[in-house]
What does this fold into?
Amino acid sequence: VSACPGSSAFFHAKCEMEASFTDSCETVQTEMIARANGENGWVDPHNGGTYAFTSTTSTDIAGTRTTGDGKYTDKYDFHFEADGSGCKVSACSESQVNSVLDYSTNYCNLHSLYCSS
It folds into this structure.
């Protein structure tokens, strides 16, 4: 899994994952960026949060996701690696405040950008 973005909070929640796709990394990354930008009416299904990018390259996306109420901001990183004709994605989302239970927020921060509609 790619390096997590880090957090200054001593106790905090995070989620690390890997996912494989039959589509190219360019296709996967394009869809994720479109969702984060709210294109085609996409709305974050986990409390209507908003995504922002701090860095995008052909192999990496880094950014933040702020909860719908604006109270919390998490950092995330995605790394894209061609895998045959498909794409392997390593990802991590990390809370930036003290937290133990995040009600799957860090998981949803990542999963929502590539799964479902």
Summary: The mean pLDDT is 94. The radius of gyration is 14 Å. The chain has two helices and five strands. Helices lie at 25-36, 105-111.
